[in-house]
């Protein structure tokens, strides 16, 4: 019997195929973006930004803006090297890729300034949605749309209504943009006696509704607005970690899990290591499936307590931050949002200057 079989002989792994999970999240984002762009009124601008607090890019703001125009056109810009710190500018290869996608170089499209630009009719919103999505994902290195923030506003900065963009996070509803947002929400609820009220509020609800109510409270949104993927998992972005919550009916169980490492070779040595680390954990387990290492913390569905789920989410966030570097150093692979996922910086040399965009 292999180590993998020993871990999973009684149940299907919670994580499943991470690549397909992420790909479906991007497809869902692109579908929602089509509706958002179609509803964009003249004079209204939609800002889409890779959250720098998650990416660790500091002052480097990777963003795309789309503005509605009076003539039924949409104008769009994507940040270029003139607006990026020297250490985070795009190299020649990335510049070629962004132009190949369909962007015009800075200064070519009127009004684009020092950003890449384009103008398209509103009838081409589907194509524009795909281009914007690929720019944010492939050029700027966003690992999952949950790491994007967005805001629609008019020329005076007043917030404009916009449909939800999948799991991307609206700046209108974000109270905490950093990695401590989920933790602070739980602490605030506990400190104000909110947990007792939450327990009373969810006491008579089915397990699935209990969970969505608690997670919505953590994410400062409503249960109806929670990002739920085709697997039925709720996605929570906390700092650089991506955490999923799944409700199981038989037996009643809530599984809180997170991808620690992906594109890793599943060797016997890796399974032994994960088994050893699992034995040291007071609760939860580590496992590998579909070339991805996952961490999982269960919460009992019977006699469900909101505080147990909040604690599991906090523990999972800490595990992701602690273990991804350690396992990456020993077994290789790719962290969910590691250095290799960030946009490639310009490689400067004494003899060649890349210029502001080429």
From TrEMBL:
Residues 207-338 form the TY-Chap central domain. Residues 24-148 form the TY-Chap N-terminal domain. It comes from the Bacteria. InterPro entries: TY-Chap_M (IPR054343), TY-Chap_N (IPR054344). Gene3D superfamilies: 3.30.1460.10. This is YbjN domain-containing protein. It comes from Dactylosporangium roseum.
């Amino acid at each position: 019997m292999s180590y993998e079989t020993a871990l999973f002989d009684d149940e299907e792994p919670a994580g499943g195929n991470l690549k397909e999970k992420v790909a479906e999240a991007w497809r869902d984002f692109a579908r929602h973006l089509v509706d958002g762009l179609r509803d964009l009124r003249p004079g209204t601008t939609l800002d889409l930004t890779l959250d720098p607090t998650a990416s660790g890019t500091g002052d480097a703001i990777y963003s795309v803006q789309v503005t509605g125009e009076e003539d039924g056109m949409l104008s769009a810009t994507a940040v270029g090297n003139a607006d990026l710190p020297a250490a985070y500018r795009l190299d020649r290869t990335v510049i070629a890729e962004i132009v190949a996608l369909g962007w015009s170089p800075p200064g070519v499209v009127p009004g684009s300034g020092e950003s890449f630009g384009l103008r398209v009719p509103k009838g081409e919103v589907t194509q524009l949605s795909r281009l914007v999505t690929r720019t944010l994902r492939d050029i700027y290195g966003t690992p999952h749309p949950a790491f994007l923030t967005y805001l629609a506003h008019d020329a005076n900065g007043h917030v404009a209504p916009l449909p939800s963009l999948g799991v991307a996070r609206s700046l209108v509803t974000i109270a905490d943009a950093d990695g401590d947002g989920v933790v602070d929400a739980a602490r605030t609820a506990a400190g104000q006696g909110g947990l007792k009220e939450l327990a009373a509020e969810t006491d008579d609800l089915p397990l699935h509704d209990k969970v969505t109510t608690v997670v919505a409270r953590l994410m400062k949104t409503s249960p109806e607005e929670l990002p739920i993927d085709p697997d039925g998992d709720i996605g929570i972005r906390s700092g650089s970690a991506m955490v999923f919550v799944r409700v199981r009916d038989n037996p009643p169980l809530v599984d809180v899990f997170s991808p620690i490492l992906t594109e890793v070779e599943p060797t016997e040595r890796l399974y032994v290591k994960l088994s050893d680390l699992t034995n040291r954990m007071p609760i939860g387990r580590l496992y590998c499936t579909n070339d991805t290492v996952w961490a999982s913390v269960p919460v009992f569905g019977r006699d469900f307590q909101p505080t147990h789920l909040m604690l599991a989410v906090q523990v999972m966030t800490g595990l992701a931050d602690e273990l991804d570097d350690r396992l990456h150093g020993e077994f290789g692979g790719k962290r969910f949002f590691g250095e290799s996922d960030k946009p490639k910086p310009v490689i400067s040399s004494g003899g060649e200057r890349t210029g502001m965009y080429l």
